[in-house]
Specification:
The complex is a heterodimer of chains A (178) and B (194).
Chain A (H helix, E strand, L loop, with lengths): L1 H18 L11 H6 L32 H7 L11 H52 L3 H25 L12
Helix pairs in contact in A: 4-5
Chain B lengths: L2 H21 L8 H5 L5 H22 L3 H12 L10 H20 L3 H14 L5 H23 L3 H29 L3 H5 L1
The chains are: A mainly alpha (178), B mainly alpha (194).
Chain lengths: 178, 194
């Protein structure tokens, strides 16, 4: 069942996507096309009749039978499908789609690699902070004190660098500390 | 329709179409998608799962102050025979991280020499200039600092001083490595040279 659903899904998406533009003429004889047309475009001739949904027309007081086939056919010629886009327009749209897809792919991979990089950097920074603290606790002579001072400076630099690259570390450390 | 929605719809359609292509294939026909690139190494996945379970068990035992029990749990990981899978980076990282934790636990109960053996083994496995390498140096510092304290308490001044010195140097090394890791991960070419 699931397998079938997934097979049908793309077709369904395509139908909904395309079908949204071409509602049944019986329900919206003219408005459906006007909705997707250019704003301010002149309404087709049928707009002035009494069919429901036409701009400004009041709904009928009683239920109307749906049009018979011959009536339907008489409505049909009044609706016009949009002209297919010219080959130039199609090429432009294809190029645009390709650009969108490329943008999306690049942004996605950058986001993922950046996220992993920040996670690792934050983890390394935590270890660096702990180690620097221990160095300073263990320092006894002047030389070791200098190493401690240098370790603190490096931690500060690393923290600044992580802050400027990642903003924050989800599991710590707090990058605003000094 | 916005660019993002358009892109997302296309990706969804492409994914659905690709998946449908695979799932609709007759069972006797192997799917080319699966053949092209086996995404996961089954023994590796089994090992990672086992390692996760063992670390979880060790967490619980450590919380219950059962350090020996936690060590036993983690030794299930290091005792696993991995064959070729053992050379995969993911396996090496897990093993080196487990060695670091084992060293920490062993040094908590005064088994400093055994802890050092774990650290030596871990450093053989840890990728160079990785968090895991730095963490192993940090754990050596922790272990040696504990040894220094134990030696001092038992009146072994020289032993204590030597251990303190080793601890100091190990922490210093950990700082070096982790600093490089940060620069490398965040792409600071100048910082890496320092």
């Amino acid at each position: 069942m699931i397998r079938r659903w997934w097979v049908v899904a793309p077709a369904w998406v395509a139908l909904v996507g395309c079908g949204g533009a071409s509602k049944s003429p019986a329900s919206t004889p003219s408005g459906g096309y006007q909705q997707y047309g250019e704003p301010g475009a002149e309404a087709p001739e049928s707009q002035g009749d009494e069919s429901p949904g036409a701009g400004g027309a009041r709904p009928p007081a009683t239920y109307q039978q749906p049009p018979r086939r011959d009536q339907f056919e008489s409505v049909r010629p009044q609706t016009r499908y949009a002209e297919p886009p010219s080959s130039d327009a199609r090429k432009g749209a294809d190029d645009e789609l390709m650009r969108v897809l490329e943008d999306f792919t690049v942004a996605e991979s950058l986001a993922l690699s950046g996220q992993a990089g920040c996670e690792h950097a934050c983890q390394a920074l935590r270890s660096m902070i702990r180690s620097a603290e221990r160095v300073c606790v263990l320092a006894q002579n002047d030389q070791e004190q200098r190493v401690c001072t240098e370790a603190r400076r490096r931690v500060r630099d690393a923290r600044d660098f992580v802050r400027s690259s990642c903003g924050r570390c989800v599991d710590g450390p707090d990058l605003d500390e000094d | 329709m916005t660019r993002a929605r358009l892109g997302a719809s296309l990706l969804m359609l492409a994914a659905l179409a690709g998946w449908a292509g695979c799932t609709e294939r007759a069972p006797e026909q192997p799917c080319a998608c699966a053949e092209a690139a086996p995404p996961v190494d089954a023994p590796l996945m089994a090992f990672l799962s086992k390692a996760r379970a063992a670390h979880h068990q060790a967490d619980q035992r450590e919380e219950a102050q059962d350090i020996a029990g936690a060590i036993t749990a983690l030794e299930q990981i290091t005792a696993t025979s991995l064959g070729a899978t053992g050379s995969l980076p993911e396996a090496r990282e897990v093993l080196s991280d487990t060695r670091a934790r084992l060293a920490d636990l062993r040094s908590q109960i005064g088994k400093y020499d055994e802890a050092e053996l774990d650290l030596v083994e871990g450093l053989k496995l840890a990728p160079k200039d990785s968090y895991f390498e730095g963490h192993l140096h940090e754990m050596r510092g922790v272990s040696e600092e504990r040894r220094a304290k134990t030696s001092a308490e038992s009146g072994d001044k020289a032993g204590s001083e030597a251990a303190r010195r080793r601890a100091f140097e190990s922490f210093e090394k950990a700082i070096d490595v982790q600093d490089r890791v940060i620069r490398k991960e965040l792409g600071d070419a100048e910082g890496e040279k320092r």
